Every structure is written in C-alpha cells, then in structure tokens.
Amino acid sequence: MNAKHLSSLIAVLVVLAAIGAFALVLWLQFARDYAPCSLCVYQRLANLAVLVVVVMGFFWTGATRRGLWMLASAYALAGAGLAGWQWHLSTVASRTPETCTAVNLFQGGRSFGTLGKDAASALSGQGSCAAAGVRTLAGWPVTHWSLVFFLACAMLLWLAQWLAGRQGNH
User: Fold this and answer.
1) Taking the CA atoms of the chain, what radius of gyration do you get in angstroms?
2) Could you tell me if 28 and 122 are in contact, meaning their C-beta atoms sit under 8 angstroms apart?
3) Using CA atoms, how far apart are residues 65 and 55, in angstroms rounded to an integer?
4) Where are the beta strands (DSSP E) in 9-138?
5) pLDDT for res 165
6) What is the b/e burial string over 57-95, where b = at least 16 CB atoms within 10 angstroms of the residue's CB?
C-alpha cells in the first residue's frame, strides 16, 4: 500500500471515529440522560469541525488536502483542550464555585418540530461542567474518553498529512 492510500485510509478512520463519537454523545444524552454542559457542546462543535474539514480534504489533493487535515488536527487539539479543562473543573469542583454557563447555539429548534427540538438540545448545554466531567462510560470519566479521542484524531491526522506529503516528494 502506498503512502497516498494509507493517508486516505487514516483520514477515513478519523471520519468514522468522529461519526461514532458524535453518535455516542447523543446516545449518552438522549438514552442515558447525561445533560451536556457548555464545554460538552463546544467539544461537539470541535468534533463536527474535524469531521467536516477532513471530508473536505477528500475533494482536494496535494498541499490543499494536507492543509485541511492540519486544520482538522487543530480543531481536534481545541477539543482536547476543552476536554482537559472540563477534567480540571471536575477535579476542583468541591473547592470552587460552578464556572460553567449555559449555552444554546440553535435557537430556532421549535420551528422544525421534534427533530428541531432534538437538534437544539444536542447543541445546548445547561448542565454543570464539573458534574458532566465526572460522568463515566465503561468505568472511565467521559472527559478522559474525550481527551483521548481528540488527541488520537490529531495524531492520526498529522500522520495522514505527513504520509500524503511524502507521496508528493516521490
């Protein structure tokens, strides 16, 4: 397998992981009643940005593709930073007052019926960032999973753009 195909395969893996992660957080919210906080919503936006920008990269080649994948890795690092901050808030929650404010990014949800209300609630955070940071999945805090997910995406995208760049040099 040449470097070009391997870099595309890695990018496809990142896209599938981003879709899976987004589906997982929606399942946690709607099936397990994990109320998202504002940091959760911003992590969802970072995840969506990674997804969209990586997919955009499939429509270009060369330096443009590599640049888009580097941009996506920057979004992944932003998501990791948000997850790290949420992790920090959950560890100091007993010593500091709540520092998380509500966010509602999709105001027009009611005009689209039930689907619009669900989309609006998926991009609205009213819960406590500290409380959301201690919620667990498979015995590990969700913030830890989020941090690992975003860092893995960033590293995989760095590898994909590096491999794509090596192919251009040969």
Assistant:
1) 17
2) no
3) 10
4) 103-104, 124-125, 136-137
5) 83
6) beeeeeeebbebbbbbbbbbbbbbbbbbbbbebbeebee
Question: How far apart (Å, rounded) are the C-alpha atoms in residues 34 and 60?
Answer: 38
Here the tokens at position 158 are 């760095």
Look at the alpha carbons of 160, 161, 163, 164 in this order and tell me if their dihedral is positive or negative.
positive
Domains belonging to the chain, first-starting first, are 3-169 (1.20.1550)
Instruction: Report the Cα 85 to chain-centroid distance in Å.
Output: 14
Q: Are 86 and 143 in contact (CB under 8 A)?
A: yes
Q: Which residue has the tokens 């496809």?
A: 12
Q: What is the mean pLDDT of each run of 10 residues along the chain (170 residues)?
A: 88 98 94 87 95 96 93 98 88 65 58 60 70 84 94 97 74
**Cα–Cα distance, 169 to 136 (Å, whole number):** 45
pLDDT of residue 170: 47
Alpha-carbon distance of 135 to 83, in angstroms, equals 13
Instruction: Specify the pTM.
Output: 0.84
What is the token pair recorded at 160?
């994909």
pLDDT computed for residue 74 by the predictor: 98
What is the reported pLDDT for 101?
Answer: 62
Q: Residues 6 or more apart from 64 whose CB is under 8 A from it? A: 57
**Residue 123 backbone dihedrals phi, psi, to 5 degrees:** -115, 30
